[in-house]
Write a structure and sequence with these properties.
By secondary structure, the protein is mostly beta strands. The protein has one domain. It is about 10% helix and about 40% strand. It has one helix at about 10-40; strands spanning about 50-55, 65-70, 75-80, 85, 90, 95-105, 110-120, 125-130, 145-150, 160-170, 175-180, 185-195, 200-205, 210-215, 220-230, 240-245, 260-265, 270, 270. Strands 13-10-16-17-19 form a five-stranded mixed β-sheet, with no helix packed on it. The chain has a four-stranded mixed β-sheet with strand order 5-1-8-9, with no helix packed on it. The protein is globular and about 65 Å long. It starts with 11 loop residues before the first helix and ends in a 5-residue tail after the last strand. The relative contact order is 0.14.
Length: about 280
């Protein structure tokens, strides 16, 4: 038996079915690609976390009068002068950072006289105070250079009618002292502060005050200062008061004399409190 083969042309319906199938496959591939691309676009990139940091230069050593400050080997503050401060800035949080202090003519952090390492908490506020002695002679006592850290800093007062003051003892040759307010009768506001100590923030009504610096017994007054918070317009502000300089400059290379100085959150030159009349 002979079987005759005959080539049969596809019908219109077959053609339509084939074309439809091809379109279905094409769009399936397209949708799959689009879905993959969308998933790629929705990959969540970790958000950088920061802390707020203010740096205050309170090292009265003449050899450190002007320094360069590096953050993670990048120049942060050029020619940072004694008794000045930075404004509050953002610094990386939840990772170790390096702060390097170098001479004012430095060209890199590799020339640092000291490196300090910190891990800051996200959304926290810090005050860092550079102080102490870098020289090998000419200062008594030759308290080592350091950066003291206060981890609960403020940029504003908690109450707009107050001025919040953080007080820090940063005078290397000054003994343990008390601070007694004698203008409005507030009494002892700082008790037995030694070198390197911070108080908590004092929440003070924004008035003009008179502060006596006494020995730790409270019997001997070392110096007296006016603290004109109202006159300076510091209502609603937070600030850092540092004891700065030397009680006995002649034993410390005739460096700057002792005084109380105020660092404002905006940074810049510290404001010296005038001697009380």
């Amino acid at each position: 038996m002979t079987i005759n083969s005959k080539k049969v042309k596809p019908s219109v319906f077959a053609k339509a079915f084939t074309f439809s199938s091809a379109l279905t496959i094409f769009f399936s591939i397209l949708l799959t690609f689009s879905s993959c691309k969308k998933e790629e676009e929705e990959i969540i990139v970790p958000v950088a976390e920061f802390a707020r940091v203010q740096v205050i230069h309170n090292s009265a050593d003449l050899a450190a009068n002007t320094v360069d400050v590096y953050l993670n080997d990048v120049l942060l503050i050029d020619n940072f002068e004694f008794r000045t401060s930075s404004p509050f800035i953002d610094a990386p949080a939840n990772e170790e950072i390096k702060i390097s202090i170098a001479g004012s003519n430095s060209t890199s952090s590799g020339q640092a006289i000291a490196d300090f390492y910190y891990t800051l908490g996200a959304n926290e506020t810090y005050v860092l105070i550079a102080e102490g002695i870098v020289s090998t002679s000419g200062y008594s006592p030759a308290t080592a250079f350091s950066i003291e850290v206060y981890a609960m800093g403020q940029e504003t007062a908690n109450n707009s009618a107050n001025t919040d003051l953080l007080i820090h003892h940063g005078a290397t040759d000054a003994p343990t002292v008390d601070v007694v307010e004698v203008g409005v009768g507030a009494g002892t506001i700082v008790d037995n502060a030694s070198y390197g100590d911070f108080t908590a923030y004092l929440e003070l009504p924004t008035n003009d005050y008179t502060l006596d610096i006494t020995d730790e017994t409270g019997q001997v007054t070392v110096a007296s200062y006016s603290a004109p918070l109202q006159t300076l317009g510091l209502n609603g502000a937070a600030a850092v008061v540092v004891a700065s300089g030397f009680l006995n400059p002649s034993n410390n290379s005739n460096g700057p004399a002792f005084g109380l100085y105020v660092a404002l959150p905006s940074g810049g030159e510290l404001v010296g409190l005038p001697a009380a009349k």
